[in-house]
Amino acid sequence: MSAATYTFLGPEGTFTEAALLQVPGAADAQRVPCTNVNTALERVRQGEADAAMVPIENSVEGGVTATLDAIATGQELRIVREALVPITFVLVARPGVGLSDIKRISTHGHAWAQCRLWVDANLPGVDYMPGSSTAAAAMGLLDEDAPYEAAICGPLVAAGQSGLNVLAEDIGDVPDAVTRFILVGRPGALPERTGADKTTVVVPLPEDHPGALMEILDQFASRGVNLSRIESRPTGQYLGHYFFSIDADGHAADSRVADALAGLHRISPATRFLGSYARADMQPAVVAPHTSDAAFASAHAWVDSILKGQ
Amino acid sequence: MSAATYTFLGPEGTFTEAALLQVPGAADAQRVPCTNVNTALERVRQGEADAAMVPIENSVEGGVTATLDAIATGQELRIVREALVPITFVLVARPGVGLSDIKRISTHGHAWAQCRLWVDANLPGVDYMPGSSTAAAAMGLLDEDAPYEAAICGPLVAAGQSGLNVLAEDIGDVPDAVTRFILVGRPGALPERTGADKTTVVVPLPEDHPGALMEILDQFASRGVNLSRIESRPTGQYLGHYFFSIDADGHAADSRVADALAGLHRISPATRFLGSYARADMQPAVVAPHTSDAAFASAHAWVDSILKGQ
Amino acid sequence: MSAATYTFLGPEGTFTEAALLQVPGAADAQRVPCTNVNTALERVRQGEADAAMVPIENSVEGGVTATLDAIATGQELRIVREALVPITFVLVARPGVGLSDIKRISTHGHAWAQCRLWVDANLPGVDYMPGSSTAAAAMGLLDEDAPYEAAICGPLVAAGQSGLNVLAEDIGDVPDAVTRFILVGRPGALPERTGADKTTVVVPLPEDHPGALMEILDQFASRGVNLSRIESRPTGQYLGHYFFSIDADGHAADSRVADALAGLHRISPATRFLGSYARADMQPAVVAPHTSDAAFASAHAWVDSILKGQ
Amino acid sequence: MSAATYTFLGPEGTFTEAALLQVPGAADAQRVPCTNVNTALERVRQGEADAAMVPIENSVEGGVTATLDAIATGQELRIVREALVPITFVLVARPGVGLSDIKRISTHGHAWAQCRLWVDANLPGVDYMPGSSTAAAAMGLLDEDAPYEAAICGPLVAAGQSGLNVLAEDIGDVPDAVTRFILVGRPGALPERTGADKTTVVVPLPEDHPGALMEILDQFASRGVNLSRIESRPTGQYLGHYFFSIDADGHAADSRVADALAGLHRISPATRFLGSYARADMQPAVVAPHTSDAAFASAHAWVDSILKGQ
């Protein structure tokens, strides 16, 4: 059996690759960096890769909007795993360069935004040069003609480059910053239910149906299904047309989630199921007695007996 | 085959018997008047009668509260039909008695209350003597020693008694008054779905569950099921313990109603199903596309395909 | 200054008089027993009494339905106090009569229903004679020709009659039974806010407004106002016309309650305010920060500043 | 009096400038193109401009996300007007260049995406070169060394350049595409209420409050206030922290809107009011009787009379 092939939002050394390395076996698998989220996912759709690791929430390298849109349309995909990566930043430079030598810093714009307090306090007056990723900014320093003296990147990049010195660690402004990534494959058998699961759906807002968003939310609320993420995205076609990308607690094999999914499909038939998978934090769902599998089974048995005239 | 046996809230000649006579075949069946609702229903439970006709809403002979409570507890019963009876009142007296001879009138207290405007206008100063039913008051006039000269009753009573004269017709204060009755049998196959049906349930309010009433109502609202009657009754045991008696549009064989019933059972497992039956007014339910049987079938097929990994 | 005058649902010695005696000063006030709830309230409306004590929930002497209907219509009244009376029953007989001598027992029907287990266990085969009240049944024993040998009544009655012996105490089937009474006066300044208050309203269900009941309940829910009692009553005019009698936690002077009242009035303009008064159990309301008086004040100040263009 | 100064998302000739030209007097005012939304708004905050025209929905030049985020934070701003611009595209080239000469086309990425069908059908195999805006792509053609032969831009750009030929008109894939823009000023007196107004708010989702999104939506729904736009945006600080950008029908001077605003402020005290202004389509709001100004006034008068003890 050949090893798995994974695509990811590259380049190598970014936080996305760190997320991919959390997948069992990924260290020995083929890992293919892609220049954007769409390409990473398209290779999975075409069967050239088994799965793609892409950011879904709060990424320092961008790509979140692209991911939300790309998995919401086109050929169906399935999220099979999530990964959380703590976001810490280091400042790197070439050997011999000290803090006082730095006039310009390069990094991805989102990373720059997250280190502004440290930079303002420690390197006041320094200039910023946009980089296409944190890793690309760091790699660029290996070129002697680089028009900047330092880069901000993740520890993984820094550790992988013997040609770079770490001048400062943990320079991010938000102490416990975390980015969430998802591993996306093709439709197939769902990952096993663990009791600490998450289900992701994309629900187009039916435009001819006033109050539809409250009805959509009520499908979850009325079954005691908690939501951990809800984001709207314009569909891009007409003004006022949206879809909602939603993470709900629980697995499609949980009766309360299956019932909520059926309700969503009735209200918005183009609802797309994007997967049920284990939560990275392994926090079990709290299930009220009246939304347990047993309560659903008992209720359906009761209705069946009524319909049979018993 | 022997004819059916029906009990009803008596005595003979009341509006309840008029309701019973609307049932096909009831004119030739055995009709057993009972002195109270509980007895009428108990005979059905014991198998001594096939069904009982009792008032459920706005009765001029009382009994509504007794009906609501009696069908909510004890051995299960099923409503199989409803009947609406227009409520019109006549004033009767013995031959030879005219309006000017009347000093005292007897009738049931509820009937009295509904003819007060006519009496005040046409027989000012007349006294009222309570009767146990409209029919009993009328019958009492046949006794020469009756301590009153006239009675208020329904046209059916008046028509059945050659010994009484009708002095005035249509003397009720509310022109289009109607009482609703139900025919109650033992559990069995449900009446056929007609598209213009009603489903009756009794839902105990779970006391350890704040907001439970809104959750109960939401089981109907979220499936587009309209309610035509909702009444609370104390359970009689503790302060603040209630059950709700509810009529909903639709038949248990309608997917949206079946789904609502399942939801009720989960929230309040002691929910009692009291029957699905044709509406007396034959007004068809309005069903939104997303709550149609087809929408439910499509939604369940979709969820099944997800769970099968397709 | 002359002492206050109170009417109450009589006769003397019932649980209702026990409730009235909890009112400071009532022991020395004039206490007028009335044969029914309507009369007791009418005397207050006419100014012949200062207030009336009547049952509102779970009474062993009946009258609850009459109270709900009487305060919901007619000239406006205000609840100014509530009283809880523990319901315990004693069996009384004339001196010289023992348990083995008892063939028939009289009491109010509701009281009889609540002592059936004890009677079945201790006096099997005994007959029941309906009484118009527990007190009347007990008093009747003083008549030598009484057609029954014992009566079930409350301890207050028994204590007041030297001519009766208590044969058994605490014979009720429900150990902690309690009846709730209300003291009803004419409109005027509201009782002071205590932090542990209750507000009573009557809300007619607007018939031309589907979903109105959920909207009504939402007026409370959306302001975090808990409901301790909700009962529907038919208005008696047309089928399907109801009003709801509701007890809500909090005082009209609480911003969240005042805001809910305004919402009710918009949806159902005939909503009737029946009073804000201290809870008998003195249990303080739990108020979420976003429904506190401070939150309302801050919100209104913010909206005002917007409208002033600041 | 000096003329007004307006900033807008440039460069000149874009759809944003077309939107600005809809503002009375803007044709003669000073119009300052800015390279990004933040700059356009910052100049207003600093008092260097009176107002800024920026895209808020479905822009072909991007900027929408930047606008949503920029008006949600920082020094307060107010939307005072909205403008709708029909989006039509033309293909332009230098004189002498025909369709068959075109090997590469430049335009903004969003515009490219909206003309793909036409391009694939009429210019198969042509290459795409990203441009920073539609106008910049068109202007670039004036340079003889431009590395592309044609550009896609709006009719306004084409009309303004005598050096360019229009090779094809109306080449967009969506026939009735429209982009929505807003004119943003500093806080001050609100625009007059017209009866066909819109109110924009930014509501941070309180994270410690489960069900908060439904509560937020219910503030509008329970007052009959329709929403025409709702979008979530991550706050960027922590996973799962969002704010919602919402357009609601009606003006803050409408009682139902003012009441909804107060409710939002209670649930999410950091709610930001972004303005009430006339709808571009002049479609009047439909107001149910129970959410009219009169209903609110009557409700408040009623509650006041209760609190005064009347």
TrEMBL record, chains A, B, C, D:
Quote the InterPro entries the UniProt record gives.
Answer: ACT-like_dom_sf (IPR045865), ACT_dom (IPR002912), Chor_mutase/pphenate_deHydtase (IPR008242), Preph_deHydtase (IPR001086), Preph_deHydtase_CS (IPR018528)
Reactions the enzyme catalyzes: prephenate + H(+) = 3-phenylpyruvate + CO2 + H2O
Q: In which pathway does it act?
A: Amino-acid biosynthesis; L-phenylalanine biosynthesis; phenylpyruvate from prephenate: step 1/1
Q: What's its top-level EC category?
A: lyase
**Where in the sequence is the signal peptide annotated?**
none
Determine the domain of life of the protein's source.
Bacteria
Q: What is its EC number?
A: 4.2.1.51
Ranges for domain ACT come to 201-278
Q: Which Gene3D superfamilies match?
A: 3.30.70.260, 6.10.250.500, Periplasmic binding protein-like II
GO terms, molecular function: prephenate dehydratase activity
What does the UniProt keyword field contain? Amino-acid biosynthesis, Aromatic amino acid biosynthesis, Lyase, Phenylalanine biosynthesis
Report the PROSITE patterns cross-referenced here.
ACT (PS51671), PREPHENATE_DEHYDR_2 (PS00858), PREPHENATE_DEHYDR_3 (PS51171)
Task: Check the record and name the NCBIfam families matching this protein.
Answer: PRK11898.1
Q: What is this protein called?
A: Prephenate dehydratase
What is the scientific name of the source organism? Paenarthrobacter histidinolovorans
